[in-house]
Design a protein that fits this description.
The complex is a heterodimer of chains A (500) and B (95).
Chain A (H helix, E strand, L loop, with lengths): L8 H9 L5 H14 L6 E4 L1 H16 L10 E5 L26 H8 L3 E6 L25 E2 L2 E2 L11 H8 L5 E6 L5 H7 L2 E4 L19 E6 L2 H11 L17 H5 L7 E5 L9 H16 L3 E5 L7 H16 L17 H12 L2 H14 L4 H24 L4 E5 L16 H5 L6 H6 L3 E8 L5 E8 L4 H14 L15
Parallel strand pairs in A: 2-3, 9-10, 9-11
Antiparallel strand pairs in A: 1-3, 4-5, 6-8, 7-8, 7-12, 11-13, 12-13
Chain B lengths: L4 H10 L6 H18 L34 H5 L5 E2 L2 E2 L7
Antiparallel strand pairs in B: 1-2
Helix pairs in contact in B: 1-2
The chains are: A alpha+beta (500), B mainly alpha (95).
């Protein structure tokens, strides 16, 4: 095989099954690609020895005829998932030196199914960010570059966030697929920015156990991959009931891959008029129209729907998510794990440890969360935001009651931007990235981002599909129809690949 | 509502995050920008709307009250910045 990193996850799986390729060969090729791509800063921790040892075990199982669904396939794991014996950072200094003594349920499911751990992927600190610029381990660089009349621009483009290491590594063919997490858009926005497929499953579909918590009522694990089929294959292994997470749902996991080939004829697709924002860029509007046309051509019926409370979702999110974060992140106190700064007494030790260990965005969100939960403001902010969350969910319930099978929207309000371009003077500017994705977390629904083509600046654009609770299968069918119709994306030649 | 520097210091202390005097003005400005962004919510009619606490209409799962895990003190202490035998060590709390 010429270069196994050019294969999709499903192609690699089939080649391994046919014994045309060994897991060790496949893994070595990915380890080499990863080591040559350090300019992207996609990995915080590379685990080549673990990868090769897992690959050898996979090859032994394959030889015995025992291959599991992900047998021998090298994956990247977002460094928010605890991995037993492998440093886990959450992109933060406050977890300095932390090596979990346990494995997150979702990553354990992947290893159960034969996958190979290539390394731990960079992310915004505690998954708080939309550009991967808040990581304590430095920003991730997207393999994509802007096109100008003079050729490719060398400005460093962000891969989106918070799962920016996952999206960059998958886009650059450093791994076959990656795990990610999504609290307000952290899977779908980076997928859209890098021309990859990202799935945020229904709340409760994947166990949150062993994943560092940000906002527990919104967090959900999901895959980023290069094709719809690859994402479907990964999600089937990741999903499932876990008694250790009381919000994980005890329902059978369907064969998502089978849905990829299913017809979308007669499916009703809602197009919400409230997402057509004032000042929406002509390119985004055109992408959306094309998405509508592709689904119509595939036999789906398009209906206009109304989700009247859409515009309140992002402000309400910026009350609820920080409130939950301020509570979840109270555990980082310098006592049980991670960084400790000495203090004159225990409170001084806490305050110094947390000031040193948390970066500016995390500190900001903890403080906002503390403020909205503090005495006298709880009802005005927190309870009011929870009521608005009810209204947002009700909007979707009504659309689904009217027979809509899925909703189609743009994934992001723009293409990716360059490092340092957004949010430096006003944090809210960065928050606006999640305007189309955050409603989905608020309502607990499944959402998927699929590439729709390139914008004039040469960077990818993504479309978002939103489904009924636990109906990821419909999203995979519709996304496959879009994937088939959309122009194929071609990444710039690998400028990031350099032997050291 | 506007956050002044005294409020920044109070919130930072509640959040157990040390802030330097030269940071309070910038932090106040950033918090006010976020609060201005969420301000529009006060105009939304939420009369009679229940707060959403769970997106899934599910009963909290319960299990038998029996020991299912434990005996892993060494694991629990493995990452402690300071420990003594099977104890976490912290600065003196009680004089």
């Amino acid at each position: 095989m010429s270069d196994p990193t050019r294969l999709s996850l499903s192609e690699a799986r089939d080649a391994i099954k046919k014994k045309a390729l060994s897991s060790v060969e496949l893994t070595r090729a990915h380890v080499a690609a990863m080591e040559k791509a350090r300019r992207l800063n996609a990995f915080i921790t590379e685990t080549p020895e673990i990868a090769l040892s897992m690959a050898e075990q996979s090859d032994a199982r394959i030889a015995r005829g025992e291959a599991d669904p992900l047998e021998g396939l090298p994956l990247g794991i977002k460094d928010l998932y605890c991995t037993k014996g492998v440093r886990t950072t959450a992109g933060s200094r406050i977890l300095d030196g932390f090596t979990p003594t346990y494995e997150s349920t979702v990553s354990a499911n992947l290893w159960r199914d034969g996958a190979v751990l290539l390394g731990k992927l960079n992310l915004d600190e505690f998954a708080m960010g939309s550009s991967n610029e808040t990581s304590a381990f430095g920003p991730v660089v997207s393999p994509w570059r802007r096109k100008t009349a003079a050729g490719l621009d060398s400005a460093k483009i962000v891969p989106g966030g918070s799962s920016g290491g996952s999206s960059a590594a998958v886009a650059a063919h450093l791994c076959l697929g990656a795990t990610a997490t999504d609290t307000g858009g952290s899977i779908r926005q980076p997928a859209a920015f890098t021309g990859t497929v990202g799935v945020k499953p229904t709340y409760g579909r994947c166990s949150r156990w062993g994943i560092v918590a940000f906002a527990s009522s919104l967090d959900q694990a999901g895959p980023i991959a290069r094709t719809v089929r690859d994402a479907a294959i990964m999600l089937r292994s990741m999903a499932g009931h876990d008694p250790k997470d009381t919000t994980s749902v005890d329902a059978p996991v369907p064969d998502y891959e089978a849905a990829v080939d299913a017809s979308v004829k007669g499916r009703r697709i809602g197009v919400p008029k409230e997402y057509r924002l004032d000042g929406m860029s002509a390119e985004i509007a055109k992408l959306w129209d094309e998405g509508v046309r592709w689904l119509k051509d595939a036999g789906a019926d398009i209906v206009e729907i109304s989700l009247p409370h859409t515009r309140h979702a992002l402000p309400a999110y910026y009350i609820l998510a920080p409130a939950e974060a301020s509570s979840n992140l109270a555990r980082y106190d310098g006592v049980r794990y991670g960084l400790r700064e000495q203090g004159r007494d225990v409170v001084d030790m806490y305050e110094k440890t947390r000031a040193k260990g948390f970066g500016p965005e995390v500190r900001r969100r903890i403080m906002i969360g503390t403020y909205v939960l503090s005495h006298g403001y709880y009802d005005a902010y927190y309870v009011r935001a929870q009521k608005i969350r009810s209204l947002i969910k009700r909007d979707f319930d009504r659309a689904f009651d009217l027979g809509v099978d899925a909703v189609l929207t743009p994934a992001t309000p723009s293409t990716a931007f360059a490092q340092g371009e957004k949010g430096s003077s006003d944090p809210v500017e960065m928050y606006l990235n999640d305007i189309f994705t955050v409603t989905v977390n608020m309502a607990g629904l499944p959402g998927l981002s699929v590439p729709g083509g390139l914008a004039a600046d040469g960077l990818p654009l993504g479309l978002q599909l939103i489904g009924r609770p636990f109906d990821e299968t419909t999203l995979f069918s519709l996304a496959a129809a879009i994937e088939k119709a959309a122009p194929k994306l071609e990444l710039p030649s690998p400028w990031w690949s350099k032997a050291e | 509502m506007s956050v002044d520097q005294a409020t920044v210091r109070r919130i930072a202390h509640l959040a157990r995050i040390a802030v330097q005097d030269e940071e309070t003005e910038r932090l106040g400005r950033e918090l006010n920008a976020i609060l201005a962004f969420v301000e529009e919510l006060s105009a939304v009619d939420v009369e009679g709307v229940e707060p959403l606490t769970s997106v899934l209409p599910m009963q909290m799962k319960k299990r038998a009250d029996v020991v299912t895990d434990g005996g892993v003190a060494d694991d629990i202490l493995a990452n402690a910045p300071a420990r003594d035998d099977h104890y976490f060590v912290v600065p003196k709390v009680v004089e």
